[in-house]
């Protein structure tokens, strides 16, 4: 197994750092999948993450000007590593004004992802910073749990409003729900095919709803479209508000494209595109 | 009796010094002398010491007078004022607004009561007075000969700050490794071996990034950098370069700022190498020899104690007094210190000749234990008799309790 990659472009480096920061906010521990054309940050829907799953994909060509990898074997040309997301984002934080960044898979006492940064300094000499991030290599038998999730047939698909606005609304709602109902931290997300999206919290005493209108629905053709002829009908899903808030907090920059797909009472699927990095995030419904 | 005055911007610098020292410990000594006003702080494990000395020129006016009639043998006595950091930090909060609003600040002591009074004369005729009670406690000072250190670096605080960013808050120790070609700041090896989840980071800095770079001996020293951060902020505030003096592992590292108006010194203990860990037998002998020579040193020194309060032991003593000596402390006391790395302390120097070999023993069952060397502390006492009676009483015990501090020989009684 081998992996070596290098970034020299400042814009690519900043973008990669932003992606890493986002992942650090979304998942404490995640899987990094390295394949010849892509890098993926994966969180599989285990009980530990509360059923939340994430699939983030970036095309390595858009970031690295040097990229060499050799997977486990010729047929299985991929590397799956488990790492603590924050370790990577912290290491990249020191690469603010770097001349070059190199990442490679190494084995120093234990397997590491070594991030090597060449910093520009005021004087002529450049400073070299190295971070050895400990990782765990995931054996091939566990790879099946870490595959790209299938996009479910959804009842409603809608474009999201500005995420920052959503986040501030959900934050306030979370405070109310904490105060009033200790047992459930429920957020109701509902949307219809008229471009309406509602975020609701309910308790015995109060019900708070925020309405977003005229958001627009992406065009899609599915069997559901013919079944449900009333476009105003809401499809709703009840999710844990904390997980929803965690997802929104991870988005530092407003994405290029943001779509929310709801499968009634099952799951909510967020499909985002940050420039050229795609992020899919699934939050299951609370039973 | 102390009486001094500052203006708004001087208050800001003073406040920054207090904040820097608050990182070291919860207690602060206010130690005025004719040389100026010194603020001193020592942590409970005796592994870190900070002192900021403001010269009389720093203040708008500075007056320090000792009341001679209090003492029967005309000796100069110290104020012996120890303040809780919790009492003093809130006074110097919001330094930027203090700088803007304070026109004049007076600090003075009252000879009859154990109080220090801080008075702020602010804009709009507002006068703020803080009466802070202090505990009578003789200040400790560390004895550290920075001029005899093999390695000296001078660096702008910004560069050091950029290096510190590399390390997470749960990595307490950093290692500084130097060769004549470059310097490297890296995560301590000891920690990364224990916790496989921690990131190991290192940064190489070339000699041209330093204002001064003189390496006498290639070395790698490890110390806690939490206390360092306070000093870093302080040096960034006064925009002065930091001088770093150090030697081999086990000997303390000294960081100092020398401005015309003030002098700041932070001395941190460094991890001593276990000789059985592969260092050459020659160095083991050297360290044992040094211990013995220290024993001799302190005996002779006791007889010639002078009454002048000095910041460091003067260069008279040809021998280096850097090697740590500490009175016997059992491990349970050390564990209470809160420093995760304080594992074991050298034995009482009275036992040194016999036990210098046993010092190199590893504690059974803990192969990774290393000695965390503590520094040699001397009390700021001007009474020669005190030292002569029992020269080893000067050594600070690594005890946390107040009673021990006050009952020890280094309090005036």
TrEMBL record, chain A:
Alphabetically ordered keywords of this record: Cytoplasm, DNA damage, Nucleus
GO BP terms, alphabetized: double-strand break repair via homologous recombination; meiotic DNA integrity checkpoint signaling; mitotic DNA replication checkpoint signaling; mitotic intra-S DNA damage checkpoint signaling; nucleotide-excision repair; response to radiation; telomere maintenance
Localization: Cytoplasm, Cytosol; Nucleus
GO cellular component terms given for this protein: checkpoint clamp complex; cytosol; nucleolus; site of double-strand break
The organism's place on the tree of life at top rank: Eukaryota
Keyword Hydrolase carried by entry: no
Keyword DNA damage set for record: yes
Task performed by this protein: Component of the 9-1-1 cell-cycle checkpoint response complex that plays a major role in DNA repair. The 9-1-1 complex is recruited to DNA lesion upon damage by the RAD17-replication factor C (RFC) clamp loader complex. Acts then as a sliding clamp platform on DNA for several proteins involved in long-patch base excision repair (LP-BER).
Protein name: Checkpoint protein
Provenance organism: Rhinolophus ferrumequinum
TrEMBL record, chain B:
Organism: Rhinolophus ferrumequinum (Greater horseshoe bat)
Keyword Phosphoprotein in record: yes
Quaternary state and interactors: Interacts with HUS1, HUS1B, RAD1, RAD9A and RAD17.
GO biological process, one term: DNA replication checkpoint signaling
CDD domains for this protein: PCNA
Family: Belongs to the rad9 family.
Name used for this protein in its record: Cell cycle checkpoint control protein
Signal peptide: none
Xref: Pfam families: Rad9 (PF04139)
Keywords on record: Phosphoprotein
Any one Gene Ontology cellular component term annotated for this protein: checkpoint clamp complex
Region (Disordered) location: 388-413
InterPro entries according to UniProt: DNA_clamp_sf, Rad9, Rad9/Ddc1
